[in-house]
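## retry 2 of 3
previous attempt timed out at serialization; input unchanged, resubmitting
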Amino acid sequence: MLTLKSSTQAGPKRAAALLGGIALTAAIGGSLAGICGFRVNTSYSLPMGVYVRTSDPSANLIEFCPEGRFAVESSERGYRTGGFCPDGAVPLLKPVVAKPGDPVKVSAEGITVNGHLLPETAPLATDRLGRSLEAWPTGRYFVADDTVWVASSYNRGSYDSRYLGPIPMRLIRSRLRPLWILQR
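## retry succeeded, writing output
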């Protein structure tokens, strides 16, 4: 005997299949974008948009995977979502503000590079959820040959060298440039 299903019985299955298809398409699209060198930035450290990998060694945007306690803290606190770093989270995308040999001063006012105080770089005592943040020790530094300093003057709440200090160049996965950004 042939039984027909009512549209109310088939509806949830169709909706689930449609949502599954959308999720699969997004996952495949995101993976292909990553393989092709595209990065979609949804964080507030830089303008939201699409960035593309470049071989230009002077490009001032880098993608890196933090390590040690910084990897744990940024992942556990939700500053980084699931991704392809060794700890299972996404890399950080940050502008390089100081290169080897540059003088850097870290103070309560922010990060000063080559005598210029960078806007919006004063370390915060707590993150947006009220959890304490430990700022990099105040003082004067010279950027070592194998490191860079990163900071966002775009968002005062950025998790960058004001907490991480110098970033070892071996952690840099790629250099990027903006392809298409949304203006704030």
